[in-house]
């Protein structure tokens, strides 16, 4: 770094947090510059030492994104926060954060990256990025259930966005969402008197889980990465629909 840079941009480019999350961390006193609590809007100058929760934030030298098959029983938290954190089991070549979450009882595709801006774009509900899941429930899937799920379900003081739902087996279906409300699929099913007994994410944007085994990961590179970046930068609005996330 040869020129001063805005603090939230410096943190985002380091891959630690998105700009929005960086501003939240600054406001809560978790960011310091040269040992002094930082202020929103402050700039980082050459030679300054920036820390987040006591750890030095260093400029990123390269960008990486990985596809990871999260096993059942692990949680999306920091290694320090939970003994079942994914980061206690997963050793990546560089420090990364997860893009979105999968809860402890869910499994499948989880994207991990040190690119804060890419992560932020992928997680913004207004960008309508697709995430696809395979779900099994506790009793037979009916045409009425599929219709209600696809048209929107009342949960968390809102109605979920219209989505694509396809029956797979007697008690299973695939669903493609463009939002990520807390435990959304489980809550949607519960609202319709179904209980989820299996949930796996198999796709996010153009990235497929493929044949990755639980606990395995692969780096996303080449044309696959370029397509993901193009999708992340796009904003696919649905005419006449308001954001539900």
Keywords:
disordered C terminus; 7 helices; 4-stranded antiparallel beta sheet; 245 residues; single chain
* Tally of helical segments: 7
Helix and strand composition category: alpha+beta
**Helix proportion range:** 10-25%
Q: How does the overall form come out from the CA principal axes? A: elongated
Uncertain runs: 236-245
The topology string of helices and strands comes to EHHEEEEEEHEEHEHEEEEHEEEH
Mean of residue pLDDT values: 90
Rg measurement, Å: 20 Å
Distance between the termini: 36 Å
The biggest sheet, with number of strands, parallel, antiparallel or mixed sense and barrel status, is: 9 strands, mixed
Number of strands: 17
Beta-strand residue fraction: 25-35%
Write the layout of secondary structure elements.
Blueprint lengths: L4 E2 H8 L4 H9 L3 E3 L2 E2 L5 E2 L5 E3 L2 E2 L8 E6 L15 H4 L7 E3 L7 E7 L2 H8 L7 E7 L5 H9 L2 E2 L2 E2 L4 E6 L2 E6 L6 H8 L4 E9 L2 E2 L8 E3 L2 H12 L12
Parallel strand pairs: 9-15
Antiparallel strand pairs: 1-4, 2-3, 2-5, 5-6, 7-9, 7-17, 8-9, 10-14, 10-15, 11-12, 13-14, 15-16
Helix pairs in contact: 1-2
